[in-house]
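Supplementary Methods, section 5.1.

A reviewer requested that the exact input to the structure prediction be made available. We therefore reproduce it here, unchanged from the version used in the analyses.
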Amino acid sequence: MNSLPNANSHHAPALARAFLCALQRYATRLHSLSCINQRYSFMRFTLLIGFSLILCRPTLLVGQTLQGQVYYDSTAAPVPFASVGVKGKALGTVADAQGRFSFSDSPDLAATDTVVVTCVGYQPARLVVRQLRQQPITIRLRKQPQTLREVMVRHQQLKPQVLGRTGTSGIAHWGVNSIVADSTRRREKLGSEFGTFLTSSRNCYVDDFNVYVARNPFRQVRLRLLFYAVRNSRPAELLLPADIQLVLTEQQHGWISVDLRPYNLQLNKGQKIVVALQWLDAVGETASYDSFDVPAAFPTPLHLVYTRNKSQDQWKFYPGQPSLYLNVQSWR
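The structure derived from this sequence is encoded cell-by-cell as follows.
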C-alpha cells in the first residue's frame, strides 16, 4: 500500500515548490481583491461626497419661490400689477391687485442678477436676487415726476386715418392657453408683451386703440396698453405716463376699443412708435383646452411684431402684423 511521502522523501522538494506556488497565487488573488475593494470604496466615497456637495449647493431647492410685495412709497397702499423682471432674462412675473408677487427660483439665476420692479407712472426699483432669496421682501416705488402737458388746440382741417391692420385673419397668434386642472401656463405668461411698430405718415392726434381678440375662454382677462418710443430700432421709453388697462369680462372677444382722447397723444410726421399689450391676469377655467388669441398676418416682410416673455427679457422680432390699429386725425 502506498504511503504519503515524508520530509525525507525525494518527492519532498517538488511538493514544497508546488505548495509555495499555490500560496503565491492565493496571495496574489487576495491582493487583487483588496485593490478592487479599495477602488470601490474610493468610488463610493467620491460619489457620496459629490452627491453631498450637490445637495449643499448655495442655490435654493427645487420648488422654492421668490416673493415680496410692492407698495407706494412709504404708505401702506399697494401698487397693483407692477412688473417684476430679471434684467436680460425671461424670468419674473406681475404682482396681483394687492401688490403681492411670487415666481419660481431657477438655476439660471445668479445671486447678483438684477431684479427690476416697474409700473407705469412710477420710478423703477432695483435689487438683487440674493435679497429675494433671503426672505419675502417689501419694495417701495416712488411716483415718476410728471411734466405739465401742453393744452393742444386741434387743427381745423383734420383727416381720419388708420395706422395698423384692420384684418381679422392670420396664421400666427399671440395669447395664453387655458387648462382645466393646471394654471401653470397662465402664471408663466404673466408679464409677457406683444406689440408692433407703427409709423405716422402725417402729424396726427390719436383717437383710439383697437385690437381683435379671436378667442377668449376666460371669465376675466386684464391687459396693459403700452406706447413706446423707438430708439435704434427697438422699443425704448414709454410715451404715456398713464397706466391704461383693458379688462375683458365674460369671454369678451371681437374688436376691443380704448378711447385715447383724454391722454392727448400726438404723433409727429414720420415718428415711429411701438404699440403693445402686456398680459397681467386671467381668471376662470374652461371645460376643455382652449386659448386666448390675437391673430397676426405672417410672414409680412414690411412689418414687424415684437415679443418678450417678461418685462426685462430680451426683445424678439418676427415678420408679422397683428390685428390691431389706431384711429387718428391727421393734418399736413
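Residues 40 and 264 are 77 Å apart (CA to CA). These observations are discussed further in the main text.
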